[in-house]
Amino acid sequence: MDASQAISQYWSHANRNLVAKIISEFHYEGAFEIGETSDSNLCAARIGNAQYHFQGRKQIWGSYRIDADSLVRVCEEQNKTAVEANLLLADLKLHLSMSDHRVAEHVEDMNATLYSDCLMMAENAKRTASDMCSMSLIEQQAGIAGHPKFAFNKGRRGWGVSDLEHYAPEFSGHFQLVWLAIRRTSLQVGIANNLNWNHDLVASMLSPSEMVLFENKLAADSLAPEDYLLIPVHPWQWENKLAMAYIKEISDKTLVYLGGAGKQVSPQLSIRTLSVIDDSSGIPAFDIKLPLTIMNTSCYRGIPSRYIQAGPYASSWIKQKCETDAELQQLGTQALEEPASAYLASTAYSQLQDAPYRFHELLGVIWRESAESKLEQGDRAYLMALLFEMDSHGQPMVLELIKQSGLTATLWLEKLFTAVVVPYYHLLVKYGISLIAHGQNVTVVCRDGIPERILLKDFQGDMRLVQTDIPELDALPDIVKQVTTRLPEELIIHDLQTGHFVTVLRFLSPLLEKIEVTELEFYSVLARTIRQYQGRHPELASRYEALNLFKPQILKLGLNLSKFRHDTDNSSDRMLPDMDLYMDNPLYFSER
């Protein structure tokens, strides 16, 4: 089915799903109220001058699970209209008193999201939940709908249709990287474990003949190959950004364009991280993370220089803790080390410190161990985000995994929370280190459908330290401490509470009601798992109170309203979430 056919066939369905998501998430963030009639499942929301009626049910976190097919939009004249995202966006414009100028950029994101949603629906119609359980990690990237909270989660602002088809994960495309030679003395480089950049890293992507060809190109230009490092860049980034932004560096041979070469890569869900897909030598050792100056969800997807030199030391330190800490050893937790990274500043933009941040994040690379390199025979790895995906028959993937495991739902959840939540919580309370555990950052390794362990990743920018000095942090390299954000306990706990409980488990828990596990029971299992961990480590009791997961109410972080108000194109800083509201904590009430 081509794009025009998919859009025609799935347009109404995609719009209804998106409208349901927007109403649910904007209500959750406090943009408007949802009223319930005497029939508790019949709900209504007034947005602008329109009234939306639907079947829905309030969930334990306060958000609504809406039946998209039941949605009806009634305008002021009591006329029913089409249920379409563009009409809802116009209603929100009026409701939130937004200018046409500000809304226009969100129209672009909305259309791009609907475009990809229609094509994904056409493709996913062929798959069952059982098929999804059999997908490789690379195949999973194409089947995940995207960020569950952001309304327009596939905006990719700056890309056209051809770019999407070549570089977006839902199209399952593959391509070669472009290679540059960059003078060593001009680069910021971070490298750990005595790795050799060209021989250990670049050689995993380029053949010996390609490396010789590049060396000969440099020599033919009267340049010494040993003075340069070979740096991969995304072909879109080179064509659309780097070839112009680094024209001075090209002129003085700081940067030499070498051309496309190497193994084929395929985009992961984050778009800028790429998996090697044609490694004939065996399992690929590394994934590669590259900047893409496109706006997607909340920010431009560049790579900042701040963490480049510290990142390899941070990931090496966490990997060492996973291998030596008794609790993490018992849990089987592993880290996907990021052993090397590099960054080149643009001479022109580096003089403009207050320029929009995207101009300071144009050219860099992070090498990361591949998840596949950590798997043993019989293992199957899943992105946590895949668990709440559903097939075209409405069967959630998580229920298929539970079925395959042969365990009761409660026991399966205990296994999941022990494998996933406990390691993140332990790193925080024991070592003062927080990693943001959203759905695409958490890789769950299962065997026969049973969660066994997780693979940690993303240590550059998605890692924070507790503000309080604790002795366990003394051994963390100073280079890491100098660049890593430190937060007080009451805020850093949100990397787990909001980053995982709200952003992942909030969407997972309602799905188990299909097999008669209520949301309260779901969070009772989570609470019990955390309490069991605390019982194993009484020596950390004082920290449990400071990093309290069981308060009656917790801060609610809002993303969509913040994005709607943020000057996304001209800001020198990334968007920050709204933190104005509180909500009831299911963990607290699960123990009452």
Explained architecture:
With 592 residues, the protein is an alpha+beta fold. The chain has 3 domains: 3-138, TATA-Binding Protein; 174-372, no CATH class; 378-590, Orthogonal Bundle (Transferase(Phosphotransferase), domain 1). The chain has 22 helices and 25 strands. The strands form 6 sheets. It has an 8-stranded antiparallel β-sheet with strand order 8-16-17-12-11-10-7-9. α1 (3-28) crosses α3, α2 runs antiparallel to α3 and α15 packs across α19. The longest helix has 26 residues, at 3-28. It is globular and about 80 Å long. The protein starts with a helix and ends with a helix. The model has no long low-confidence stretch (mean pLDDT 94).
Q: What does the average pLDDT come to?
A: 94
What is the name of the CATH topology of the largest domain? Transferase(Phosphotransferase), domain 1
What share of the residues does DSSP label as strand, in percent? Answer: 15-25%
Q: Structural class given helices, strands, pairing? A: alpha+beta
Helix percent reads: 25-40%
Number of distinct helices: 22
Question: What Rg is obtained from the alpha carbons, in whole angstroms?
Answer: 24 Å
In whole angstroms, the N-to-C terminal distance is 53 Å
**Bulk shape:** globular
Q: How many extended strands? A: 25
Output the strand order for the largest sheet: 8-16-17-12-11-10-7-9
Number of domains: 3
Q: What's the CATH architecture name of the largest domain?
A: Orthogonal Bundle
Contiguous low-pLDDT stretches (5 residues minimum) are none
Tell me the name of the CATH class of the largest domain: Mainly Alpha
Largest sheet: 8 strands, antiparallel
